[in-house]
Amino acid sequence: MTIVLESLLAFILVYKYAALFVITFVAAFFLPLPASTTLVAASAFAFQGYFSFPAVFGIALLGNIAGDNLGFFISKKYGEELLRLIGFKKILTSPNFHMLKEYTKTNTASLIFVSRFMTEIGPSVNVLSGIIGMSYRKYLFYEITGEASYVLLYSSIGYYLGSRWENGVNFLTTAGIFMTSLGLLFFLIQSRLFKRGRNLS
Amino acid sequence: MKFIQKFKNILTPRLLVISFLIVVLVVSGMVLVKEYRVLYKIGVLKRPQHPRELPEKITINDIKPWMTFDYINKQFNLPDGYFKDALNISDSAYPNLPIDKFFKRDRIDPRTAVEKIRRLILARNSESPQPTSR
C-alpha cells in the first residue's frame, strides 16, 4: 500500500464523512488521488458497521459531482483565457485541438460517461466540456449518470469484499490501469475514425 | 536509409501512444488475471453460503499503523479509554488518533507500534474474553 493511500485512509478514519467528501471532491476536480481505492475502503468500513453504507455512497457521489461541476464551471468561464495565460496558446489554435473540440461535441455521452471510471482522465474531460461550451443540462445528465454508476460499482466492491478489502487493492489498482488504457485506446481509435469520417465528408 | 525514412514516416506520435497503450493494456490484463487467481486462491472471491459467516471485523493480524484507536476499539469491542489508560495517552485527539501518529512522537517504528497494540488487545482478551467478530 502506498504512503498516499495510507495517509488518505488515516484521514478518512479521523474525519470520517467530511474526509471522504474532500478526497472525492479533490480527485474529481483536479488531483489524481487514489479515490477509487479510498471509496472501496470506506465501503468496507461500512460493511464492518463503522460507517453507514448509504452515507458513504451519497457523500462519495456528492463529492464527485461537486468536483466535476467546479472544474466544468471554471473552464467554461475562464478555460481558454486561463490556458492562454499559462502558455497553451499554440495548442488552443492547433488543428488537433480544434478536432478534439469537434470530437467532444459529437461524442459527449460516451466521453463523459466512460471518463467517470477513469479518475485520472475525468478532470481533463470536465475542462474540455467547459471549454467547448457544452450545455450544462446535457453535461449534468451524463456526469451524474456516470458518477452514480462509478460510485455504485466501487462501493459495491468494497462492501462485497468487506474486511478482506485490502487483499483486493492490487487487483483494483491494476483494474484501474487496465480500464484507463482501454478507455484511452478506445477514444484514440474513435477520434481517428471521426477525423477520417470528417475528411471523407 | 530508405527503410529508416519509411519507418520515420509511419512512426507518428499517435501510433506511438497507441502502441504504448496496447502494451500497457496487455501487461495490465495479464497482471489482472494473475491477481484474480490469487484472490480466488486465498478465498476472497468465494462467498460463504450464509451471509452471517462473513468476517465482519478485522483480526489482530490486520491491524495497520494508519488505523485509529477509535476504529480498533470498535473492531475489537474494547472500552473507549482502554488504550488511553494502557499507553498513557494525553493527546486530546484520542480516540480519533492514528496509531502511527501517536507512536511517531516517541520515535517508535510503526511495526513495533502495531505489535504493541496487538499485545495489548491479546492481554485484554485474555483478561476478559471478547468476541472479535459478530
From TrEMBL, chain A:
Cellular compartments annotated: Cell membrane
Domain VTT: 34-159
Gene Ontology CC, one term: plasma membrane
TM region positions: 7-31, 51-74, 139-162, 168-189
Keywords assigned: Cell membrane, Membrane, Transmembrane, Transmembrane helix
Membrane topology category: Multi-pass membrane protein
Family: Belongs to the DedA family.
Listed name of the protein: VTT domain-containing protein
TrEMBL record, chain B:
UniProtKB keywords: Membrane, Transmembrane, Transmembrane helix
Domain of life of the source: Bacteria
Transmembrane segments: 15-33
Name of the protein this chain belongs to: Uncharacterized protein
Source organism: Candidatus Ryanbacteria bacterium RIFCSPLOWO2_02_FULL_47_14
